[in-house]
Amino acid sequence: MIPSDLSGALDREQANAELFELLRIPSVSADPTRAADMARTAEFLRAKLGKLGFAARVEATAGHPVVYAERLQAPGRPTVLIYGHYDVQPEAPLEEWTTPPFEPTVRDGRIYARGSTDDKGQAYAHVKGAELLLSRGELPVNVKFLLEGEEEVGSPNLDTYLRENAAELAADVIVISDGSRFAPDVPTITYGVRGLSYVELHVQGANRDLHSGSYGGAAPNPINALCEIIARLKDDQGRVTIPGFYDGIEPLTDEEREMWAGLPHSDEAFAASIGVSALPGEAGYTTLERIWGRPTLDVNGIWGGYQGEGSKTVIAAKAGAKVSMRLVPGQDPARITRLIQEYVPQIAPAGVTVEVLDHHGGQPVKLSTDSPYIRAADRALERVYGKPAVFARTGGSIPIVAAFTEILKAPVLFVDFGLNEDAPHSPNESFAVQDYHNGILTSAYLLEELGK
Amino acid sequence: MIPSDLSGALDREQANAELFELLRIPSVSADPTRAADMARTAEFLRAKLGKLGFAARVEATAGHPVVYAERLQAPGRPTVLIYGHYDVQPEAPLEEWTTPPFEPTVRDGRIYARGSTDDKGQAYAHVKGAELLLSRGELPVNVKFLLEGEEEVGSPNLDTYLRENAAELAADVIVISDGSRFAPDVPTITYGVRGLSYVELHVQGANRDLHSGSYGGAAPNPINALCEIIARLKDDQGRVTIPGFYDGIEPLTDEEREMWAGLPHSDEAFAASIGVSALPGEAGYTTLERIWGRPTLDVNGIWGGYQGEGSKTVIAAKAGAKVSMRLVPGQDPARITRLIQEYVPQIAPAGVTVEVLDHHGGQPVKLSTDSPYIRAADRALERVYGKPAVFARTGGSIPIVAAFTEILKAPVLFVDFGLNEDAPHSPNESFAVQDYHNGILTSAYLLEELGK
């Protein structure tokens, strides 16, 4: 079959209009008050895939529903399972958005909206990619779509869904577009993702808030204590101090370190892009190595005491923080969570009680760079960008990747359409219109290449 | 003149009803939306004092108004200035109140309401004390009331008011009831108060919130940085590490340490009363010494990143905390604030920028225990409680005490009616009905004793 040039056949206006409609639904999976919006989003996707001739349905789970669709018209050809998620991060802090998070707005060639790049825009690019190919005839491979609604809260119910439907979901390769390319105009294939262990620390001091004058000097202060605990979780070399944290980690290979050192990266430009004067982290590793190949610990949120106007002289009864650790191959999220749960009480100051709640985790994964699927993706990307792809890892985590490899026993192929500067998870998240359109073309060409 | 027994003459029902009316007005000085309530509270007090035959007026300031009233019918007799404040702390966290903070409710002999003990209840006891004496004839001394509305926000405008009205406010002694007695049934005269330096720390990392996967390991995390800064402000002996912090402090005298060691205090009972297992603090000092006679540093509030439901994998752009230091004689609030403003940038981790905002301060004060005024208070208390008073200090701060001593050049007499267990500044603040009534009697007897 002759590789088609589909660029001219893509109705970009129509593609944008459909994505905007999808982005207008506030599908925040973490917010219990938005359950109805979640259902509306799932139905939107089911209806669209149904129109394209897919056998599509919305599947209930113990949490938010899954959208499953399949079109199996290529007997003897490979089966491709395309995974994406239609849920998005909370929009807070709302006041920092230039335009409303759920009213998509194009500025300077970018679509600004929560979920524009993570992951509605990238997932929908595959839907449009399939539609584009169908406009030229039958799909050259069997295609299955699995679009979930709980990725941003750790996919608590997807494992069960995968186990119960393993036969139906069976595929030769799983394609995921839920991350960032290395740089603009740099087609990227990602062969590794970090894992995640996410916990919440609760520190309790007195049985009530206390007057800091009447008690200051004798009453334990849970906020000071929480800060001490957090400060003790890392040493002055940026290393995590939790005993056993680094045990079993696969060291970076010289080949990887050389490959990454050769990528177009500048610490100065990177620091400037986020407006900071330094890039602190684990000693002995480059910035890319620290983000892609080394584990980290970051506090994602903290609270306690008086946060309002003016001053309040109080010693709070309790304080809390959300802490996440990014993990690399060789680290097991469940084990890391257990280690921090054992360690925090040991480093807690006298007089307070601590609790470490387990939010969720995700397995770190690394893939072989010479599989035929990665080669097919390489060819597809070259057809869109006119240059070969670079091989990178990502610092992000896709918790269900491990489930795919374990339960469906299929290799996972990461072909990302987004960029870090899209600011996923932040106010003013965006997705370049050009990247969205390239994603649609890449998806269509990838199905062609996989069909060869 | 024969000491009168006024106990039988006190209409307790009426006294309670009036206080409840006062407590129903949400006079939160820190909340800009409650300016009208502040004005209503001031007018309530002016009207009451006017009815008692005081020349009473509400005086505008650059902030919330001051209520001033005087009745000068005792030529040749001493003049007593009674200070109190009608503003209250914010009620947050509202959900922890058993009954609404501004709907006074009596349970188990206690009046539950914001401001019940700090300071509406204690200040109004003096108003009722004067009324009680007037029911028997003219006041035996000249009495002036100064009731301000900005004590809980650091009395930013009172200094100016005192300077501009120094002549009118002139007094032989200033009486303040805005604190706690040592224990139930223990009449207490407080001869020292701690000072205060209150600052707000702001830490800025990147120019926007970042995805903790894509940036974790390289981007500075302002929450981790804030925790490190706060942890570094104290050493493992509970001492504040700010260079020069302890310079010039008047050491506790052996006499004071012995006197306090003799007071009925049990660390076990104290810890149990606030539900903690230990009382951490500066090494080498007893609990009472740490609260009354030594400086401290406490974080009163902290915030940053995601505080909502579930998990959000974000590296916040900024974080902040409110930090207060209680000071003792020999420490100057302005100097301490300058020291921490110089120190924090020095201990801030790389990659973040910090800002230390000055909220407000208060001078520490210590008084001589053998003045005739303290003796008069001792006699008045003995008439109410049937036992001599104990001499204590308080860990709290009354920022304007220094202004009184400096500007009005009059000694300040602390006769407190409340208790620590009243939980001022906390949810479910309360004031024992009995303590309120004893306060009224103490106030009346004190005026008699001062008139001798």
Automatic annotation (TrEMBL), chains A, B:
Leader peptide range in chain numbering: none
InterPro entries, per the entry: Cyt/Met_Dipeptidase (IPR051458), Peptidase_M20 (IPR002933), Peptidase_M20_dimer (IPR011650)
Domain Peptidase M20 dimerisation, first and last residues per copy: 192-350
GO biological process, one term: proteolysis
Keywords recorded for this protein, A-Z: Hydrolase, Metal-binding, Protease
Protein name per its UniProtKB record: ArgE/DapE/Acy1 family protein
Species assigned in the record: Deinococcus gobiensis (strain DSM 21396 / JCM 16679 / CGMCC 1.7299 / I-0)
Family annotation (CDD domains): M20_dipept_like
GO MF annotations in UniProt: metal ion binding; peptidase activity
Presence of keyword Hydrolase: yes
